[in-house]
Amino acid sequence: MSSSTGRTGTTTAITDIATLVTNDPSLGGGSPRSSKLESGRGSPLGLIRDAAVVIEGDRVVWTGESSKAPATDNRVRADGRAVLPGFVDSHSHLVFAGDRTEEFNARMSGRAYSAGGIRTTVAATRAATDGELEANLTRFLAEALRQGTTTFETKSGYGLTVADEARALRLAAAHTDEVTYLGAHIVSPDYADDPAAYVALVTGEMLDACAPHARWIDVFCEKGAFDGDQARAILTAGKAKGLHPRIHANQLSHGPGVQLAVELDAASADHCTHLTDADVDALANGDTVATLLPGAEFSTRAEWPDARRLLDAGVTVALSTDCNPGSSFTSSVPFCIALAVRDMGMTPDEAVWSATAGGAAALRRTDVGRIAPGAYADLTLLDAPSHVHLAYRPGVPLVSEVWRRGVRVV
Ligand SMILES: [Zn+2]
Protein backbone atom coordinates (compact mmCIF):
# COMPACT_ATOMS: atom_id res chain seq x y z
CA MET A 1 0.00 0.00 0.00
CA SER A 2 2.98 2.25 0.53
CA SER A 3 3.55 2.66 -3.18
CA SER A 4 -0.09 3.45 -3.92
CA THR A 5 -0.38 6.12 -1.22
CA GLY A 6 3.10 7.52 -1.54
CA ARG A 7 3.65 7.05 2.19
CA THR A 8 6.29 4.89 3.74
CA GLY A 9 4.79 3.73 7.05
CA THR A 10 4.50 0.05 7.85
CA THR A 11 1.06 -1.31 6.94
CA THR A 12 -0.98 -3.55 9.22
CA ALA A 13 -4.33 -5.18 8.53
CA ILE A 14 -6.66 -6.11 11.39
CA THR A 15 -8.94 -8.75 9.87
CA ASP A 16 -11.80 -11.03 10.92
CA ILE A 17 -13.67 -8.26 12.74
CA ALA A 18 -17.26 -9.38 13.45
CA THR A 19 -18.61 -5.82 13.65
CA LEU A 20 -16.66 -2.70 12.69
CA VAL A 21 -18.04 0.66 13.86
CA THR A 22 -16.70 3.27 11.41
CA ASN A 23 -18.90 6.36 11.98
CA ASP A 24 -18.01 6.96 8.33
CA PRO A 25 -20.68 9.16 6.69
CA SER A 26 -19.86 7.68 3.26
CA LEU A 27 -21.01 4.27 4.55
CA GLY A 28 -24.35 5.54 5.79
CA GLY A 29 -22.91 6.65 9.12
CA GLY A 30 -22.65 10.22 10.27
CA SER A 31 -24.67 12.01 12.86
CA PRO A 32 -27.87 10.52 14.29
CA ARG A 33 -29.41 13.78 13.10
CA SER A 34 -28.85 12.87 9.44
CA SER A 35 -29.76 9.21 9.87
CA LYS A 36 -33.05 10.23 11.44
CA LEU A 37 -33.83 12.32 8.39
CA GLU A 38 -33.29 9.18 6.32
CA SER A 39 -36.62 7.89 7.64
CA GLY A 40 -35.29 6.63 10.95
CA ARG A 41 -33.89 3.43 9.53
CA GLY A 42 -30.43 1.99 10.03
CA SER A 43 -27.62 3.00 12.31
CA PRO A 44 -25.56 6.16 12.56
CA LEU A 45 -22.49 3.98 13.00
CA GLY A 46 -21.55 3.05 9.42
CA LEU A 47 -21.31 -0.63 10.40
CA ILE A 48 -19.34 -3.18 8.38
CA ARG A 49 -19.77 -6.91 9.19
CA ASP A 50 -16.91 -9.43 8.71
CA ALA A 51 -14.62 -6.43 8.30
CA ALA A 52 -10.97 -5.42 8.18
CA VAL A 53 -9.10 -2.18 8.87
CA VAL A 54 -5.75 -1.30 7.30
CA ILE A 55 -3.41 1.04 9.18
CA GLU A 56 -0.39 2.80 7.70
CA GLY A 57 1.80 4.61 10.19
CA ASP A 58 -0.56 6.42 12.58
CA ARG A 59 -3.54 6.59 10.21
CA VAL A 60 -6.36 4.43 8.88
CA VAL A 61 -5.96 3.96 5.11
CA TRP A 62 -8.62 1.37 4.25
CA THR A 63 -11.78 -0.26 5.66
CA GLY A 64 -13.96 -2.91 4.07
CA GLU A 65 -14.87 -6.57 4.00
CA SER A 66 -12.23 -8.81 5.52
CA SER A 67 -12.05 -11.04 2.44
CA LYS A 68 -11.13 -8.03 0.29
CA ALA A 69 -8.36 -6.62 2.51
CA PRO A 70 -5.29 -5.63 0.50
CA ALA A 71 -1.83 -7.11 1.07
CA THR A 72 -0.01 -5.54 4.03
CA ASP A 73 3.28 -5.87 5.91
CA ASN A 74 1.56 -7.29 9.00
CA ARG A 75 -1.74 -9.02 9.66
CA VAL A 76 -3.58 -9.33 12.99
CA ARG A 77 -6.72 -11.43 13.41
CA ALA A 78 -9.52 -9.94 15.55
CA ASP A 79 -11.10 -13.43 15.78
CA GLY A 80 -14.71 -12.29 15.64
CA ARG A 81 -14.41 -9.40 18.04
CA ALA A 82 -16.01 -5.95 17.58
CA VAL A 83 -13.81 -2.97 16.77
CA LEU A 84 -14.85 0.64 17.30
CA PRO A 85 -13.15 4.04 17.33
CA GLY A 86 -11.27 4.79 20.54
CA PHE A 87 -13.57 6.71 22.88
CA VAL A 88 -13.30 10.51 22.85
CA ASP A 89 -13.84 11.71 26.43
CA SER A 90 -14.44 15.42 25.89
CA HIS A 91 -14.99 16.37 29.57
CA SER A 92 -12.82 15.47 32.57
CA HIS A 93 -11.14 17.15 35.55
CA LEU A 94 -7.98 15.12 36.14
CA VAL A 95 -5.47 17.62 37.57
CA PHE A 96 -6.23 17.33 41.26
CA ALA A 97 -5.02 15.90 44.54
CA GLY A 98 -6.85 14.50 47.55
CA ASP A 99 -9.84 12.27 48.06
CA ARG A 100 -13.54 12.77 48.84
CA THR A 101 -14.55 9.25 49.84
CA GLU A 102 -16.14 10.47 53.08
CA GLU A 103 -18.27 13.04 51.28
CA PHE A 104 -19.54 10.40 48.81
CA ASN A 105 -20.16 7.90 51.60
CA ALA A 106 -22.15 10.44 53.60
CA ARG A 107 -24.22 11.48 50.57
CA MET A 108 -25.06 7.87 49.70
CA SER A 109 -25.80 7.10 53.35
CA GLY A 110 -28.20 10.01 53.75
CA ARG A 111 -25.97 11.72 56.29
CA ALA A 112 -25.19 15.42 56.43
CA TYR A 113 -21.61 16.27 55.55
CA SER A 114 -20.26 19.73 56.16
CA ALA A 115 -16.87 19.65 54.45
CA GLY A 116 -16.21 21.98 51.58
CA GLY A 117 -16.93 20.06 48.35
CA ILE A 118 -14.80 21.56 45.56
CA ARG A 119 -12.97 23.65 48.19
CA THR A 120 -11.61 20.44 49.74
CA THR A 121 -10.04 19.48 46.43
CA VAL A 122 -8.74 23.03 45.89
CA ALA A 123 -6.90 22.94 49.22
CA ALA A 124 -5.37 19.51 48.51
CA THR A 125 -4.39 20.49 44.96
CA ARG A 126 -2.68 23.70 46.06
CA ALA A 127 -0.72 21.74 48.68
CA ALA A 128 0.45 19.05 46.23
CA THR A 129 3.81 19.08 44.45
CA ASP A 130 4.02 19.09 40.65
CA GLY A 131 5.20 15.49 40.84
CA GLU A 132 2.22 14.41 42.91
CA LEU A 133 -0.26 16.08 40.54
CA GLU A 134 1.40 14.60 37.47
CA ALA A 135 1.51 11.11 39.00
CA ASN A 136 -2.22 11.34 39.75
CA LEU A 137 -3.00 12.59 36.24
CA THR A 138 -0.92 9.84 34.64
CA ARG A 139 -2.63 7.18 36.75
CA PHE A 140 -6.11 8.23 35.65
CA LEU A 141 -5.06 8.53 32.02
CA ALA A 142 -3.73 4.98 32.09
CA GLU A 143 -6.97 3.85 33.73
CA ALA A 144 -9.02 5.55 30.98
CA LEU A 145 -6.83 4.10 28.21
CA ARG A 146 -7.34 0.56 29.54
CA GLN A 147 -11.08 1.21 29.17
CA GLY A 148 -10.76 2.31 25.56
CA THR A 149 -10.36 6.10 25.77
CA THR A 150 -7.78 7.31 23.24
CA THR A 151 -8.59 11.06 23.19
CA PHE A 152 -9.37 13.08 26.29
CA GLU A 153 -9.94 16.66 27.30
CA THR A 154 -9.05 17.85 30.78
CA LYS A 155 -9.36 21.07 32.75
CA SER A 156 -7.82 23.23 35.43
CA GLY A 157 -10.17 24.53 38.13
CA TYR A 158 -8.78 23.20 41.40
CA GLY A 159 -6.04 25.84 41.76
CA LEU A 160 -7.94 29.14 41.52
CA THR A 161 -4.78 31.22 41.85
CA VAL A 162 -2.73 32.51 38.91
CA ALA A 163 0.17 30.18 39.67
CA ASP A 164 -1.93 27.11 40.50
CA GLU A 165 -4.19 27.38 37.44
CA ALA A 166 -1.22 27.89 35.10
CA ARG A 167 0.54 24.93 36.72
CA ALA A 168 -2.47 22.64 36.20
CA LEU A 169 -2.70 23.57 32.52
CA ARG A 170 1.03 23.16 31.97
CA LEU A 171 0.88 19.65 33.46
CA ALA A 172 -2.20 18.73 31.40
CA ALA A 173 -0.70 20.06 28.17
CA ALA A 174 2.15 17.57 28.49
CA HIS A 175 -0.41 14.77 28.02
CA THR A 176 -3.13 16.11 25.69
CA ASP A 177 -3.84 18.86 23.15
CA GLU A 178 -7.35 19.28 24.54
CA VAL A 179 -6.67 21.48 27.57
CA THR A 180 -9.31 23.76 29.09
CA TYR A 181 -8.79 26.78 31.34
CA LEU A 182 -11.46 26.62 34.08
CA GLY A 183 -10.33 29.32 36.50
CA ALA A 184 -14.07 30.04 36.72
CA HIS A 185 -14.95 26.69 38.35
CA ILE A 186 -16.11 28.39 41.56
CA VAL A 187 -15.31 31.78 43.05
CA SER A 188 -12.00 31.25 44.84
CA PRO A 189 -12.47 31.04 48.64
CA ASP A 190 -9.90 33.85 48.80
CA TYR A 191 -12.44 36.13 47.09
CA ALA A 192 -15.61 34.97 48.86
CA ASP A 193 -16.48 38.57 49.79
CA ASP A 194 -15.68 40.05 46.40
CA PRO A 195 -16.70 37.84 43.46
CA ALA A 196 -16.31 40.75 41.02
CA ALA A 197 -12.64 40.99 41.90
CA TYR A 198 -12.26 37.26 41.22
CA VAL A 199 -13.91 37.62 37.78
CA ALA A 200 -11.46 40.46 37.09
CA LEU A 201 -8.58 38.14 38.01
CA VAL A 202 -9.94 35.27 35.86
CA THR A 203 -10.32 37.60 32.84
CA GLY A 204 -7.05 39.44 33.48
CA GLU A 205 -3.82 38.26 35.02
CA MET A 206 -4.91 34.61 35.36
CA LEU A 207 -6.07 34.45 31.72
CA ASP A 208 -2.75 35.92 30.55
CA ALA A 209 -0.85 33.24 32.48
CA CYS A 210 -3.11 30.38 31.36
CA ALA A 211 -3.91 31.09 27.71
CA PRO A 212 -0.54 29.86 26.35
CA HIS A 213 -1.18 26.38 27.81
CA ALA A 214 -4.85 25.92 26.78
CA ARG A 215 -7.06 25.51 23.71
CA TRP A 216 -10.41 26.08 25.47
CA ILE A 217 -11.99 28.30 28.13
CA ASP A 218 -14.83 27.06 30.33
CA VAL A 219 -17.05 28.47 33.08
CA PHE A 220 -19.40 26.83 35.59
CA CYS A 221 -22.57 28.84 34.88
CA GLU A 222 -24.85 27.96 37.80
CA LYS A 223 -26.44 29.48 40.90
CA GLY A 224 -23.69 29.68 43.52
CA ALA A 225 -20.94 29.73 40.88
CA PHE A 226 -21.08 32.28 38.01
CA ASP A 227 -24.20 33.97 36.60
CA GLY A 228 -24.91 34.66 32.93
CA ASP A 229 -23.29 38.10 32.86
CA GLN A 230 -20.15 36.86 34.60
CA ALA A 231 -19.98 33.82 32.32
CA ARG A 232 -20.34 36.01 29.22
CA ALA A 233 -17.54 38.32 30.42
CA ILE A 234 -15.23 35.38 31.14
CA LEU A 235 -15.81 33.56 27.85
CA THR A 236 -15.60 36.75 25.80
CA ALA A 237 -12.27 37.62 27.44
CA GLY A 238 -11.02 34.12 26.64
CA LYS A 239 -12.07 34.41 22.99
CA ALA A 240 -10.11 37.65 22.72
CA LYS A 241 -7.02 35.69 23.83
CA GLY A 242 -7.60 32.96 21.23
CA LEU A 243 -9.33 30.39 23.47
CA HIS A 244 -12.55 28.78 22.27
CA PRO A 245 -15.51 28.51 24.70
CA ARG A 246 -17.25 25.51 26.23
CA ILE A 247 -19.64 25.82 29.21
CA HIS A 248 -20.80 23.85 32.25
CA ALA A 249 -24.47 24.68 31.67
CA ASN A 250 -27.87 23.82 33.16
CA GLN A 251 -26.55 21.04 35.39
CA LEU A 252 -28.37 21.70 38.66
CA SER A 253 -31.11 24.11 37.56
CA HIS A 254 -32.51 26.08 34.64
CA GLY A 255 -30.30 29.02 33.73
CA PRO A 256 -28.75 31.07 30.93
CA GLY A 257 -25.80 28.75 30.22
CA VAL A 258 -27.13 26.83 27.22
CA GLN A 259 -28.41 29.92 25.39
CA LEU A 260 -25.11 31.69 26.09
CA ALA A 261 -23.21 28.68 24.73
CA VAL A 262 -25.09 28.80 21.43
CA GLU A 263 -24.83 32.61 21.23
CA LEU A 264 -21.03 32.48 21.66
CA ASP A 265 -20.66 29.43 19.36
CA ALA A 266 -19.27 27.33 22.19
CA ALA A 267 -18.12 23.93 20.97
CA SER A 268 -20.14 22.28 23.72
CA ALA A 269 -22.69 22.92 26.46
CA ASP A 270 -21.95 20.33 29.13
CA HIS A 271 -24.48 18.61 31.45
CA CYS A 272 -27.74 20.02 29.88
CA THR A 273 -29.85 18.32 32.56
CA HIS A 274 -32.42 21.10 33.12
CA LEU A 275 -33.57 22.46 29.75
CA THR A 276 -36.50 24.55 28.57
CA ASP A 277 -37.99 24.05 25.12
CA ALA A 278 -36.21 27.27 24.09
CA ASP A 279 -32.88 25.77 25.22
CA VAL A 280 -33.48 22.64 23.13
CA ASP A 281 -34.46 24.75 20.11
CA ALA A 282 -31.32 26.87 20.47
CA LEU A 283 -29.12 23.76 20.53
CA ALA A 284 -30.95 22.24 17.55
CA ASN A 285 -30.44 25.41 15.50
CA GLY A 286 -26.82 26.07 16.50
CA ASP A 287 -23.47 24.31 16.19
CA THR A 288 -23.01 23.69 19.92
CA VAL A 289 -22.92 20.02 20.95
CA ALA A 290 -24.87 18.94 24.05
CA THR A 291 -22.45 16.86 26.15
CA LEU A 292 -24.24 14.62 28.64
CA LEU A 293 -22.35 13.39 31.71
CA PRO A 294 -24.43 10.68 33.40
CA GLY A 295 -21.68 9.75 35.84
CA ALA A 296 -22.56 12.97 37.68
CA GLU A 297 -26.26 12.14 37.99
CA PHE A 298 -25.40 8.57 38.99
CA SER A 299 -22.98 9.67 41.71
CA THR A 300 -25.30 12.33 43.16
CA ARG A 301 -28.61 10.48 42.72
CA ALA A 302 -29.85 13.34 40.56
CA GLU A 303 -32.37 13.48 37.73
CA TRP A 304 -31.03 12.12 34.42
CA PRO A 305 -30.57 14.38 31.39
CA ASP A 306 -33.15 13.55 28.70
CA ALA A 307 -31.05 12.44 25.75
CA ARG A 308 -34.12 11.27 23.81
CA ARG A 309 -35.65 14.76 23.86
CA LEU A 310 -32.40 16.26 22.50
CA LEU A 311 -31.92 13.63 19.79
CA ASP A 312 -35.54 13.86 18.64
CA ALA A 313 -35.10 17.63 18.29
CA GLY A 314 -32.01 17.10 16.10
CA VAL A 315 -29.35 18.13 18.64
CA THR A 316 -25.86 16.60 18.32
CA VAL A 317 -25.19 14.74 21.59
CA ALA A 318 -21.85 13.71 23.12
CA LEU A 319 -21.37 11.37 26.09
CA SER A 320 -18.43 11.83 28.46
CA THR A 321 -17.33 10.91 31.98
CA ASP A 322 -16.87 14.26 33.80
CA CYS A 323 -14.25 12.28 35.75
CA ASN A 324 -13.56 14.29 38.93
CA PRO A 325 -13.09 13.41 42.61
CA GLY A 326 -16.34 15.00 43.82
CA SER A 327 -19.38 14.35 41.66
CA SER A 328 -18.37 11.69 39.10
CA PHE A 329 -15.32 9.66 39.98
CA THR A 330 -15.43 7.31 37.00
CA SER A 331 -13.06 7.22 34.04
CA SER A 332 -15.19 4.58 32.30
CA VAL A 333 -16.89 5.60 29.06
CA PRO A 334 -18.46 2.09 28.75
CA PHE A 335 -20.17 2.69 32.11
CA CYS A 336 -21.58 6.00 30.81
CA ILE A 337 -22.81 4.26 27.64
CA ALA A 338 -24.68 1.70 29.75
CA LEU A 339 -26.30 4.44 31.87
CA ALA A 340 -27.30 6.44 28.79
CA VAL A 341 -29.01 3.42 27.25
CA ARG A 342 -30.69 2.26 30.46
CA ASP A 343 -31.83 5.62 31.83
CA MET A 344 -31.58 8.40 29.24
CA GLY A 345 -33.51 6.99 26.30
CA MET A 346 -30.56 6.42 23.96
CA THR A 347 -30.31 3.40 21.70
CA PRO A 348 -27.05 1.45 21.99
CA ASP A 349 -26.03 2.72 18.55
CA GLU A 350 -26.71 6.34 19.51
CA ALA A 351 -24.77 6.01 22.78
CA VAL A 352 -21.73 4.51 21.04
CA TRP A 353 -21.85 7.24 18.37
CA SER A 354 -22.07 9.94 21.06
CA ALA A 355 -19.07 8.52 22.97
CA THR A 356 -16.91 8.47 19.82
CA ALA A 357 -17.96 10.78 16.96
CA GLY A 358 -20.05 12.90 19.34
CA GLY A 359 -17.07 13.51 21.63
CA ALA A 360 -15.00 14.42 18.59
CA ALA A 361 -17.68 16.91 17.51
CA ALA A 362 -17.62 18.44 21.00
CA LEU A 363 -13.89 19.04 20.46
CA ARG A 364 -14.44 20.14 16.84
CA ARG A 365 -12.25 17.29 15.60
CA THR A 366 -12.75 15.03 12.57
CA ASP A 367 -9.44 13.13 12.82
CA VAL A 368 -10.64 11.07 15.81
CA GLY A 369 -13.94 9.37 16.70
CA ARG A 370 -14.23 7.49 13.42
CA ILE A 371 -12.44 4.68 11.58
CA ALA A 372 -12.14 5.93 8.03
CA PRO A 373 -9.30 6.72 5.65
CA GLY A 374 -7.38 9.73 6.94
CA ALA A 375 -8.43 9.42 10.58
CA TYR A 376 -5.96 8.53 13.32
CA ALA A 377 -5.69 4.78 13.87
CA ASP A 378 -7.26 4.88 17.35
CA LEU A 379 -9.13 1.59 17.83
CA THR A 380 -10.83 -0.19 20.70
CA LEU A 381 -11.37 -3.97 20.45
CA LEU A 382 -14.05 -5.67 22.55
CA ASP A 383 -14.19 -9.22 23.84
CA ALA A 384 -17.64 -9.36 22.26
CA PRO A 385 -18.99 -9.66 18.71
CA SER A 386 -20.89 -6.36 18.79
CA HIS A 387 -20.63 -2.82 20.19
CA VAL A 388 -24.13 -3.38 21.66
CA HIS A 389 -22.50 -5.48 24.37
CA LEU A 390 -21.19 -2.25 25.94
CA ALA A 391 -24.74 -1.64 27.16
CA TYR A 392 -25.93 -5.28 27.18
CA ARG A 393 -23.14 -6.37 29.58
CA PRO A 394 -22.82 -3.41 31.99
CA GLY A 395 -19.85 -3.37 34.34
CA VAL A 396 -18.00 -6.12 32.49
CA PRO A 397 -14.45 -5.19 31.36
CA LEU A 398 -15.00 -5.93 27.66
CA VAL A 399 -12.16 -3.79 26.27
CA SER A 400 -9.50 -6.33 25.31
CA GLU A 401 -7.12 -4.31 23.16
CA VAL A 402 -6.51 -0.62 22.40
CA TRP A 403 -4.55 0.90 19.52
CA ARG A 404 -3.54 4.54 19.60
CA ARG A 405 -1.97 6.35 16.63
CA GLY A 406 -1.41 2.98 14.95
CA VAL A 407 0.36 1.36 17.91
CA ARG A 408 -1.13 -1.31 20.14
CA VAL A 409 -0.97 0.23 23.65
CA VAL A 410 -3.22 -2.14 25.67
ZN1 LIG B 1 -17.24 19.15 34.75
UniProtKB/TrEMBL annotation:
Annotated binding of Zn(2+), by residue: 91, 93, 248, 322
Chief subcellular location: cytoplasm
The protein's UniProt keywords, in alphabetical order, are: Cytoplasm, Histidine metabolism, Hydrolase, Iron, Metal-binding, Zinc
Family of this protein: Belongs to the metallo-dependent hydrolases superfamily. HutI family.
**Iron found in the keyword field:** yes
Q: Where is the Amidohydrolase-related domain positioned along the sequence?
A: 83-387
Name it. Answer: Imidazolonepropionase
Q: Which residues bind Fe(3+)?
A: 91, 93, 248, 322
InterPro entries according to UniProt: Amidohydro-rel, HutI, Metal-dep_hydrolase_composite, Metal_Hydrolase
Task: Provide ranges: composition bias, Low complexity.
Answer: 1-19
Organism of this sequence: Streptomyces achromogenes
EC number(s) recorded for this UniProt protein: 3.5.2.7
